[in-house]
UniProtKB/TrEMBL annotation:
UniProt-listed PANTHER family: BCL2 INTERACTING MEDIATOR OF CELL DEATH, MEIOTIC DOUBLE-STRANDED BREAK FORMATION PROTEIN 1
Top-level lineage group: Eukaryota
GO biological process: meiosis I
Protein name per the record: MEI1 protein
Length: 302
């Protein structure tokens, strides 16, 4: 089925949402709900379809070309198609790298536009933000070096008026710029305050991947991002809701992140002791899977 469905997608236009949206979802789940052997063949079928990749290019570009909806919580058919497109491309990036599949057509994306889609959200639905962050995680994990993706609009030195230190940091983080990193971190922090479970999971995962990328490129910038005092205020905000327990997945994963990068100004021995005390008193068998996984990461980091 992959072959005719992918061919059908390649004959569509981005505005053919009624046909494209379920078709892209079928392609996405075909990649994920199959055996590794079949998965490798599925990736090869999709990446050999030039028309499909050209269509995906046009679909993703609609993210910043169309006007934002009047109701941020409403997922229109156009937004649903964008979600499917971003998730499918993120998966193709992941599996193309895993299986070293031949690429017949590259995708070109403006990194600044992708980052701005998250930084300047303009009433984007939560599911669309989550989908774009999945894509960001994929390119960060591959150090922007995928043979399937070409990054355009890369940052270059901004002249002699810019401080030399910032220019050196920008060069180390290329194609990201330091200012883009800080803007993205602030946006991710703000998104966490919404306390939406799906959004929180995506934000924390994106933050983890971003700091990992920064640590490889420039440890000073990574440690500076991980030790921002605003993170401590963010933790207090997350704990100030109806559920004050530290045993919340996003809180545990943030704590593990701060421990990993030795951000002692964000998390203290007192907070670590409180988490251990809560874990000792909890019925671990009844914890949700996300909480159990986050607690495991935290304890391993301790």
């Amino acid at each position: 089925l992959l072959f005719p469905v992918s061919n059908l997608c390649g004959k569509c236009r981005p505005r053919d949402t009624d046909l494209l949206q379920p078709s892209l979802n079928f392609l996405y789940w075909s990649l994920h709900q199959t055996t590794p052997c079949s998965q490798q063949r599925a990736v090869a079928v999709l990446l050999s379809n030039v028309s499909l990749l050209e269509l995906l290019q046009k679909v993703l570009e609609c993210t910043w070309l169309r006007s934002p909806p009047s109701e941020p919580a409403y997922l229109s058919s156009e937004d649903a198609l964008l979600c499917s497109g971003w998730l499918l491309v993120a998966s193709l990036l992941l599996y193309q790298h895993r299986y070293n599949t031949e690429v017949h057509q590259t995708l070109s994306l403006d990194l600044t536009e992708v980052l701005n889609a998250v930084i300047f959200r303009k009433k984007k639905p939560i599911l669309l933000l989550v989908s774009i962050m999945q894509f960001l995680r994929a390119v960060l994990r591959q150090n922007f070096s995928s043979s399937l993706l070409v990054i355009v609009g890369q940052n270059t030195a901004q002249g002699a008026t810019q401080p030399q230190l910032s220019s050196l940091q920008d060069a180390a983080l290329h194609p990201l710029a330091v200012q883009q990193v800080f803007s993205l971190v602030v946006s991710l922090q703000n998104l966490l305050v919404h306390k939406d479970l799906l959004l929180s999971q995506a934000v924390v995962a994106c933050l983890e991947t971003l700091v990992e990328y920064l640590y490889v490129k420039n440890q000073d910038v990574a440690l500076h991002v991980a030790s921002q005092p605003w993170h401590r205020f963010l933790l207090f905000t997350l704990l100030n809701g109806g559920q004050k327990s530290f045993l919340q997945p996003e809180v545990l994963r943030l704590m593990a992140l701060f421990l990993r990068y030795q951000s002692s100004n964000i998390i203290s021995q007192k907070e670590i002791s409180q988490i251990l005390q809560e874990a000792a008193e909890a019925n671990l068998a009844e914890l949700p899977e996300a909480t159990s996984h986050a607690l495991h990461l935290f304890l391993c980091q301790v």
